[in-house]
Amino acid sequence: MSDLSDFAVTSKWPVDDPSKLQLFSYPTPNGQKVSILLEELGLPYEPHLVPLGDDYVKSAEYLSLNPNNKIPAIIDPDGPDGKPLGLWESGAILIYLAEKTGKLIGKTPAEKAEIIQWVMFQMGGVGPMFGQLGFFYKFAGAKMEDKTAQDRYIGEAKRLLAVVEKQLEGRDWLCGDYSIADIALAPWLHALDFYGAKDVTGYNELTNVPAYVERFYARPAAAKGRNIPDPKG
């Protein structure tokens, strides 16, 4: 059985079964990506709830696993060469697990390249821009009298939604077959509901995107994984 005691994070979040992949997360869009993928792959894993407060994500124990103090992070007890591997950054985790299992990352080099391209689109565009939209539209930034920043991120969200709407024309999933690209993107599209920003970004005027998100969460793994770890503890 794997020994994960060298990972200091396990002193704050004790491990019950060290033979299982360990997930340290919270069900935000970035966290949901990994829990949904794990459910899709059917890999045995143990989820640990990491609240977003500084006492948790900036604790010495968590920083020992993820120096960027963000969720999610994992420990794979069966990493390369059979050694435990700690990994953070949601996109990197998606690619790692998909490559490890040979699932949801295409069947040819060309398919893999296209899928990773759309994962990067989410990581570099949709995630950061929608996150800023949430800050300036719903949270503290919404109180600013100068609406320049809010308008900027509303406009960028509209542009990104238009890119997705076009890509989904005539197809159920971003790259033809269901893949980690969809797992990366759909939770962030759904976040516009949490931000109360569907109307202002024109989401409800689109055809393909709303149907895509609904189709995504109709998958049993997505419906289950979106609430793992349980935020109520």
Low-confidence stretches: none
In percent, how helical is the residue content?
40-55%
Second rung of CATH, namely the architecture of the largest domain: Up-down Bundle
Query: Which secondary-structure class do the elements indicate?
Result: alpha+beta
User: Main β-sheet, in a few words?
Assistant: 4 strands, mixed
What is the CATH topology of the largest domain?
Answer: Glutathione S-transferase Yfyf (Class Pi), Chain A, domain 2
Oligomer: single chain
Q: Could you tell me how far the N terminus lies from the C terminus, measured between alpha carbons in angstroms? A: 27 Å
SS elements, strand count: 4
How many structural domains? 2
CATH domain class name of the largest domain: Mainly Alpha
Mean pLDDT: 97
Beta-strand residue fraction: 5-15%
Q: What is the CA-based Rg, rounded?
A: 18 Å
SSE blueprint and pairings:
Elements (H helix, E strand, L loop, with lengths): L8 H4 L8 E5 L3 H13 L3 E5 L4 H4 L2 H4 L9 E4 L8 E4 L1 H12 L7 H29 L10 H20 L12 H15 L3 H4 L6 H10 L2 H6 L8
Helix pairs in contact: 2-5, 2-8, 6-7, 6-8, 8-10
Q: Can you describe what's shown?
A:
The protein is built from 11 helices and 4 strands; from the N terminus they run αβαβααββααααααα. α2 (29-41) links the parallel β1 (21-25) and β2 (45-49). It folds into 2 domains: 9-103, Glutaredoxin (3-Layer(aba) Sandwich); 109-221, Glutathione S-transferase Yfyf (Class Pi), Chain A, domain 2. The two termini are 27 Å apart. α6 runs antiparallel to α7 (148-167). It has helices spanning 9-12, 29-41, 54-57, 60-63, 90-101, 109-137, 148-167, 180-194, 198-201, 208-217, 220-225; strands spanning 21-25, 45-49, 73-76, 85-88. By secondary structure, the protein is of the alpha+beta class. The protein is globular. 52% of the residues lie in helices and 8% in strands.
